[in-house]
Amino acid sequence: MLTPRQPENDFHFLSELVLTDAASSAPTNQIAETLVDHNPGRFEALVELAAKNHVIIRAFSQLSQLLKMNGSAHLRDGVSLAVEEENSRIRHALSFLNRICATLEENGCTVTVIKSLDHWPDIGSDLDLYTDAQPARVVDVMVTNFGAMVDQRSWGDRLAKKWNFIVPGLPELVEVHIGRLGQTGEQTAVTESLSRRCRVINIGHHWFRVLAPEDRIIISTLQRMYRHFYIRLCDVIDNASLLASESVDFTYLHSLGSASGIWEGIATYLTVISGYVESFRGHGIALPALVTGSAKFGVEKVHYRRDFLRVPILPHSLNLYASELKTLLMRGQVRNSLRLSLLPGLATAAALELKITGSDKGIW
Predict the structure, then answer these.
(1) Higher pLDDT, 16 or 4
(2) Domain positions in the chain
(3) What is the CA radius of gyration of the chain?
(4) What is the pTM of this model?
């Protein structure tokens, strides 16, 4: 039993809302202890946590239905307002994203939206794009057409060939990855087929080019298991839904993951997600033996801390990093291996910078 009025309890409650089968009433008995108390900041804290995990629309839409049966009018109004404000932010961001993609395309820069739309009907806190175009061309289009300004680039940004743009009138940063992926830009095996395998989807009144399911999983794995070492609640529900759709080609995923040196990380990531889903539904996501047999650990090694599910760095993530580096070296990818070999130094510098200044932005 989780201790009431603790952040972990809020995370558990949000997990119930987005992961419990719709026919179940399991979250209902949590409403009183989770939301209705004498702390005026209680609900605001839940909204903030949901925003950090990119699940406001999905979690609070479900909560709104529950509150029709059990909840005060004041609380119902608060939930409705939170959803309305988030939907307004999303509509504004999508309008900009549509214009940015169209303008880049018109100027010879083929772009694919990565990560940001994986959370639909929620979206991320910035807008991520991938392109093979020349960096100077991308910068020129963004500056000329949107009055954008290139945000300060960290060492990690430069290695990863990533540019962040501040666009007037758009609260979210536009993050453009050019030609490379991975924390140090070490992943080019993944990008070789990225653009030609993408698909076009309709969201609202807009059309966007997005990644194939396998590439979505790979990029999500790179971000969670090899860079941030934490898993957001949106990552769990996004990938669980993707796996449940039975649209993932595991043979291709294994082939590309192995060539990139991150197959064990992919298998571990999916196994953790399945295990977390099982703790709320009573059954996990069906995964082939190809995946479960390659996983290095499961959900038992992942714990809630500071708003997210934390992935253990030592020794687990370090072993995944070593496996990736070994694969790149064995495949003769010298430049990519050199890039990746800089990661421990960057991580150490970032940790020191964070401790001294309270921010690691200049490093990562």
Answers:
(1) 16
(2) 7-71, 212-331
(3) 21
(4) 0.93
